[in-house]
Amino acid sequence: MNHEHLKTIADQLSLPLRHVEAAAKLLEGGDTVPFIARYRKEATGSLDEVAITSIRDTMAQMEALDNRRDAILKSLRQRDLLTEDLEERILCAGTLTELEDMYLPFRPKRRTRATIAREKGLEPLAALIFEQEGNTDPVAAAGQYINPEKEVTTPEEALAGARDIMAEWINEDQTARERMRSLYMEKGVFCCKVIPGKETEGAKFRDYFDREEPAATAASHRILAMRRAEKEGVIDLRIEPPEEEALAILEGIFVKGAYPASLQVKEAVRDSYKRLLSISMETETRLETKKRADEEAIRVFADNLRELLLTPPLGRKRVMAIDPGIRTGCKAVCLDRQGKLLHTETIFLFKSESAKEAAAEAIREMVKTYAVEAIAIGNGTAGRETEAFVRSLSFSGDIPVVLVNESGASIYSASEAAREEFPDLDLTYRGAVSIGRRLMDPLAELVKIDPKSIGVGQYQHDVNQPALKRSLDDVVTSCVNAVGVDVNTASHQLLAYVSGLGPHLARNIVAYRDAHGAFSSREKLKEVPRLGPKAFEQCAGFLRIRDGENPLDASAVHPESYGIVEAMALDLGVAVAELLINDRVRGRIDPNRYVTDSVGLPTLTDILTELARPGRDPRRDFEVFTFKEGVERMEDLRPGMRLPGVVTNVTNFGAFVDIGVHQDGLVHISELADRFVKDPNEVVKVHQQVTVRVLDVDPERRRIGLSMKGDGAGQPEKGRRDAKPVSGGTRVNTPRKRRPMPFNNPFAKTFNG
Cβ–Cβ contacts within 10 Å for residue 657, how many? Predict the structure, then answer.
């Protein structure tokens, strides 16, 4: 653990050094981010997961910088190029860019024009001219280097070679590169031109056929769109600063006057800029703007995914799930309260009246036979029609009918996880099972699917894939551990995201559970093969055992703190179970009495909070939502209509909203609220319920323009508690920053009783 690095991290993140050091030590010791944030608050000063993750990632970046520094020093030593001054400068380099600039003149090169000139013995001439002494006559000096054997036959050929060498020196000069880098980042402009003949083929990119935009302020989604258009061969993309300003900067650095030698240097400057520096700087600027765009796109994706995973579950209900189909029929399955498959059946709603009557009878029979408590219907093709048909049926009892977002269900159907669970089941039935389980518990089902298949990101296939995976894995891990996992019912895919476990231990837990039955206590986890003390420490607090031997096993109280709770109960003369159910008894606990050197008030406060609501699911309760009846296709839309909808995706340029017509509409950022909105996440979150107004409909391009401005559009649905007033008395959906939104299940699009 490098102390200087930790000081730098503390300064960068504006955190106390002692807390950064504590978090770093815990991370190096194998503790996970969720564990540190939840159970080591005294050590870290109650740093949250965001801060701890930032410490972890910055440590990794600095380690990568150190590794590159070591590799450069080793290379220079091996080639006997390392001087004391150079070594000191390399050791002091604070960024990878600075380090690479220092190394550039010494980097092994391919054969360049400057290399060829050196082979001709022209480097002394270049050095003489570069000094720009007033009495130097470049032509006369060049005449001394004429050597036909080395293919230098005239003074001009010698001067050309000298200029090639000087151009390389200019390109490799650290000051010049820093100044050019700043110019490109501050004044560089993205210049897009359509490639002739690609206008029709690349019509979707027509906004970029003739466009200029400053690199410093270009939005991430536009940067990624321009790069994709270039990759697909539709546009030519360049980044260019004001050329005369660039040349003026370089001439100011290298040209010392108006001497004859200075004119040669000036010519070398122009050649260096056009042939070397501009290309190098454009490449760097492309990489830097791409990195910035990637980070923003990944942040948006991660925010959307978090909202998606933490949306409310319907809970443990006996569910019938229907995956609609027109030609091949609707695939219906029945699941028990744990999501176990009980029955499969194909019904036909779109063939004939007799087939429809048979389907109605089959649905009623399945509802009766399997005591169905809710019906989930996929929202794909014919979803609204199937939903309307099922809602028209009469059942004995109050059975909700729910339209469920089936995005990614087909990915699950063909996945290894689905094949492992249902090796002999048809793909379409697997999809129906996934739809039903998503209604019951979206988090538990979605962890089985690659998040990129869910469709809540922007340009997710264009961004840095390892960085995207790290970020999304962090989000899934955070959500899973925030909710907690029932160890006796969870799949190995869900268990794999629990702190300290991973895929191998998760499978071992499931195998042990299958062989020995349900776990009766957290202590029994220690009997799982290869689940050692460290893994137990990390995972135990996030695993739940309901109706077990110890009532605390169903809570988020960590086993290491059971002794504290037992001491509280003993002091009050009651059983531990009494503390979980009796508010009056809990109210007599003075946490200050239990403070020790290792346990402080943050942990004790968490324990008391957990005793009041043991194992509480932090997600909101399932809420009712219904699309507008009679609006089922784009053809049903008219400008001015006010419709209820559900946000399906939030991007930098606005939000996409499902209004029940099989095509999401776009609320552009300028239409989100009656005020300036910089970040759409200020106003809406994924799967938030909103009211929108139709602005325009373009059936040909399958585009729907929506607004949440004025006339009550964009108001929270009835019962929402998260609206905040803004200027003019208008109310907009502005969610609280740190708490899950009180919107409905993300996959529950309609619901009727």
Answer: 25
Distances (CA, A) of 92 to 9, 69, 101: 16, 10, 13
pLDDT at 631 exceeding the cut of 50: yes
The percent of residues in the chain predicted with pLDDT above 90, rounded, is 64
State residue 341 phi and psi, 5-degree precision.
-75, 125
Count of C-beta atoms within a 10 Å radius of residue 598: 9
Please tell me the pTM assigned to this model: 0.84
Q: What is each CA distance from 390 to 51, 385, 747, in whole angstroms?
A: 48, 9, 18
Q: What is the pLDDT of residues 132-186, one digit of tens each?
A: 988 889 999 999 999 998 899 999 999 999 999 999 999 999 999 999 999 999 9
Q: Are strands 374-378 and 401-404 parallel, antiparallel or unpaired?
A: parallel
Cβ-count burial of 247 within 10 angstroms (0-12 exposed, 13-18 middle, 19+ buried)? middle
Residues 374-408: pLDDT tens digits?
999 998 888 888 988 998 898 888 898 888 888 77
| DSSP collapsed to 3 states, 455-487 | CCCCCCCCCCHHHHHHHHHHHHHHHHHHHCEEC
Residue 132 region, left (φ>0) first, then alpha (ψ -120 to 50), else beta?
left
Q: What is the DSSP secondary structure assignment for residue 275, as one 8-state letter?
A: I
Of residues 53, 16, 21, 17, the one with CA closest to residue 34: 53
Structural domains for the chain: 3-106 (1.10.10.650), 113-301 (1.10.3500.10), 321-449 (3.30.420.140), 464-553 (1.10.150.310), 557-614 (1.10.150.310), 634-752 (2.40.50.140)
Helix (H, G, I), strand (E, B), or coil: what is residue 736? coil
CA–CA dist 449, 553 (Å, integer): 29
State residue 753's pLDDT score.
Answer: 33
Reported as a single tens digit per residue, the pLDDT across 493-550 is: 999 999 999 999 999 999 999 999 999 999 999 999 999 999 999 999 999 999 899 9
Report the alpha-carbon distance of residue 362 to residue 403 in Å, rounded. Answer: 19
Q: What is the mean pLDDT of residues 208-212?
A: 93
Nearest to 725 by CA among 259, 717, 716, 116: 716
The Cα–Cα gap between 249 and 263 comes to 16
Parallel, antiparallel or unpaired: strands 689-698 and 703-707: antiparallel
